[in-house]
Amino acid sequence: MTYLFPDDLVRAQRDWLATYQHLAQPCPRHTTALRRRLLDLGAQVQWHAFWSTPPSTPAARVELRRLAHRQDQRGTRAA
Predict the structure, then answer these.
(1) Residue 46: pLDDT above 70?
(2) Dist CA 16 CA 10 (whole Å)
(3) CB-CB contact of 56 with 9 (8 Å)
């Protein structure tokens, strides 16, 4: 099934992924700020209005993460 995710939801998921990757680095700086950002972005994704619509299944959440990861990989290669 194909899902049409809102841009702000995809952006929040991509930002969450990037923040998580920063925290996963050896000896990250500003860990408190990164953890707070991770929590904030996680709440934005979790409670987004999109999830109150009918196609909001667990599979949609997985697909959102996959989409964000694919976009992040494309962005990394382009940089």
Answers:
(1) yes
(2) 10
(3) no
